[in-house]
Amino acid sequence: MDDFEMAVLLCLDASADAAARGRAFAYCDQLRSSPDAWRFCVARLAAASDGGGGGSGGGGGGGGEGSGGGGGGARPPPRPEARFWCLAVLHDALVSRTRPLVDTDRAAVRSCVTAQLRSAAVAASPAYVRNKLAQLYATLIAADYPASWPGAFSTDLVTLSRDAGGRDAFFRILRAVDEDVTSVRAASAAGSRVKDGMREDCIPGLVATWASTVAAAAAPGATAADMDAAIAALDLVRRYAQWVDIGLFLTNDLLRVIYAALTGSAPALAPLAAASAAALSALVAKRMAPSAKASLLAALQLRALLPALATELPPQGAGEAELGLRSATVEVANLVNTVATVAIGLVGEAGGGGGGGEAAAAAAEATALVETALPVALRYIANEEDEDVAAQTLEFISAYVSAVRKAAEAAGAAAAASMGGGDAATAAAAAAASRLGTSDAGLREILRVVKEVAAYPPDYDPEDGAAACGDLRESLVTLLKNTARAAPAVVLASVEELASGLLTADVAAAGTPPPSAKDEAAADGWWNTVRRTELLLRLLIALQELSSELGEPLTCRLSPVICAVLASPPSVIAAAAVAPVRTVAEAHQLDEVAVTFLDLAARSYREVGASSGHSLLSAVLPIYFDSRGLDHPSPRVRSRAAALLLKLIRPLRSAIASRHLGDVLPALVPRIFPLAPAGSPASADQDALLDTAGLLLGVDPGAAATAGYLTSTLAPIIEGLRAAAAAARASAGGTSANGGAGAGGFDAAAAQRWIAAAAQLSKGFCARGTPGDGGSSGAGSPGGGPGADGWDGGPADANEVLAAAAAAAAGTSPGATRPPFPEAVLAPWRAACEAVLALSAAAGPAVQARTLTFLHRMVETLGEVALPFIAAAMDTLVSPAAATPAELNAVVVLVNQVVSRFRSSAAPVAAELYLPLCARVAAATPTLDPDRLMAVAEADRERVELHRNWLLFIHGVLVAGLGGEVLGHPARAHALQPLVAAVVAAAVGDGVDVRVGAAVSKLAFTTLARMVVQWAPPPPVKPGGGAGAARASTAAAAGAGAGAAPAAVGATDDAERGAGGKIEQQLAQIEAAAVVAPSAPLPGFGEYVVAAVAPACVASAVRNGIFRSSAGAAAPVGGGGSRAGATPTAAAATVEPPVTAATYAAGSRGAGVMTANVLLQVAAARRLGDPFIAAVVAPVGGVSGGGEAVRAYAAALAAPEGAVPSEELVRRFVGVVVDHRQRGGR
Fold first, then answer.
1. Which of 432, 439, 571, 878 is deepest in the core (most CB within 10 A)?
2. DSSP letter string over 967-982?
3. Which of 742, 735, 800 is nearest to 774 (CA)?
4. Tens of pLDDT along 998-1011?
5. pTM for the complete prediction?
């Protein structure tokens, strides 16, 4: 072993010394990158003494004279690793685009490769070396065949196949040619050229060689090597069938061996089963015209082959795995599915008509083939060896079901063609295609297999989400639903048969206890019943999901089956405590039966509610409370029972409350209390039960029994709240920072749990004195929201009927205003509110979030009765200086809800909170990233959300008509000026996160406009035609330019045709609204708006200039235009420095449409006119850098600096801004 081989081995040895490996890598990389690396490799391979390869190799190396330095004498055969390295370098040289080999060099490489293929040492080398040689041969074919190397196949390859050691190379080379050159997946540019050359040169001979190789395996005395060669030959048939003439393969010798291997008629040929199935599948799948395809299927005699396929097949062999073949079972299943799918395609094409008598014959043959393939394919539907088998089988069966559904349409077409005297051939083809639907035998066989396979296997654990059986089961259920769409009567009959058998057996075995686990046979039979019962329940649920889609044809027969099952619950559901459980999987299967039954009952609320005298309800409801539901030994079943009970109660709450309230509520309370720790599985179950209790109590709060049940349900909660408050006071600050138990024994998590329980119970109530909706609004409401339409979207028939009946008895309509809650119902809720507030005052921030949630619920539960409690809670919720922006935001959201819900009644609460919230919100200013202009830190994102909700609060106060009482009250007037400034800043985008900028700016502008309409002085009546005429005159003047004479008063149409006219319309609308505004003007508001808007106008002008200027270029901020009629003067402002990311972002935000609207509508519409314009065109005190922008506007308006403009100048100002917007593309 010389230095070269040592270097190659070091490169491959991960355990070698790192320094030595580094030197080896450097040596090999240097050698590989050399221009003569390929010469070195040719010489290295040719000079080796490895059998007869030396001479030929030397000839090939002649082109590499002087290379390698080692060709002088015979060498021992190179190690396989070194030989592979050399072959890889040769391959890289052949495919290199930077240094392509010339023809003579490629000839030298060809000579070397062919010599290596004849070498005995190579024939004995590992497979990876032989594969590399085959790949190299295929690469040479792609480069030189047929022009420079016409004998690559007919001479060199055929000669090679005759050698005992060359047969393996023959098959490997042809596989490499397929993978790298001729197949579709190879995507080789030389593919078409090589295939054309092979068709003319060697394909018939190659196919004959493959056929003779396969036949040799069937001859007496065939060896294992002959069998391996036959497998390789059949693999080549599979590969080349896609583009080789199909007739070459349809020889008796080849097909005879294939059929013998597949049917098992010749046991010695069983190892060929996988390769035979794969080859035959490729022949069937070959793309061709329908008529040719029909002829092919007939020639292959598949109708005789499919029923005779062997059921006992050998496992996968090592040679098959190397060829990419799967096991014989998988390949045979794929053959059946391929044949059936192709035949179904032919049925569809022939059924479309347009083929005459040939189409009819083809359709008939294809239909018969489909019917033959169906029972064979169903054997493989539960194949566990390969998931693809079941997937392929289900794909075919789904296609079959779809074809059956279309068959009815084809039958109709055939009848129409025959009745109407249409084309006889078309009618015959359609009639043949419709044969799939003439018999239900195929569908019944499918359903039989589905019922067998979809049942749980004995060792299947339903709680094991990774089990493959679960996916197959879901696919089978989907198949059953698709079959029901095609033939609902057939599916219903099958399900009825299953239900009848189980119910009959259950009645016969009534009173018989489950067998002992020691009695294996009896236990197996009992567990089989368990699994079939679960399957029946699951199939009923699946069919029930189709009720809305299929309607009466399904429900008229499905509902009686469901009612029968619910009226006589399977006995296995109640046998959990005494069942002969032998494994964990069996225990979980039994749990699944109980859960599925409860789920079916909850989904079947229509059937339960529609039963005569609610008899089915009386039979089903107790199941949820006994050992089959909430008292089940399994925690999972108990948990699901709690959730499914709520699911049943929602649509049937009225019926249950009127008949079973006295049964349900006493059964619920002991299961709710004591409360489990938050986050535990039991706590989720208790929450569902609290929801259930609230829904039932909220149906008719005026009923005599409701108050007593409500008091008994709330009593433990109130007691827990009071105890928690006492513990919080006793701890005197001992509560830990993370909300755990403090030194004094206060447990914040438990306290939060009590508050949450009270809020959970309240979901069933809604405030009275408002239009009744049958219950509380929102999630879980008895009359609105999801509850009104049932759990799965259907109409809540029972509730609607009962609500209408109750309204008729009371002499009111269902939508009429409902009377307030009776005092007996309000009293416990008041006590709960007082207890929550006492706990909040004692525990402070530890329970703030839960307190806010509870108060939100009280707004919906008690209505205005909750306002005093909300006002009392605000001192605790707003005052702590340590409150985070998120906590403060939750308070603002609550106040927004109160204001929007109660409007004028909420004035005291809003007024009391306004100033404290102002101070807290002002102190929580978000910090934005200067480049991206967005909040990065979580705390800043919370502050952004706080400011947005605060603006919503201000807007809500104005919408509710509380602006004067809350915002403009003399006691709070000192906060008005900063409030206006903040609203204007939000309108122009200052300090607003770009992600919410558009929404916030729009909201701020709307808020400011409402302030203007309510508080600004009304417009004075102008002499000579009123405000509208004067506005039209001055607008026309603005459109004519600075030096133009004013237009006539009546020139309104011309003004309204441009952008200025649109603005005039907006101004007229706002002024008209202001004239009829009932609120009195707010003194000082105009001055506040001037002070706030003028700097924003200047800042917007500067940003407009930044936005429009290019990097390093000066741009005028105000420059006049066609509407202003003025040319920018030397005084026009320029903007520097060059545009950066931050200034660009600032400009894009500051130059928004909202800014212009605020300036125009606030300034011009509300008659702040002259003072406002004076503030804009003259330097404004306290505005940094505003002077240049102001002078630019003054120049654009042709007004002397500092002059107080006239109203005409106001109109020109409008024209300048409009012109800026038009030129900016906005």
1. 432
2. IS-GGGGGGHHHHHHH
3. 800
4. 788 778 878 877 88
5. 0.72
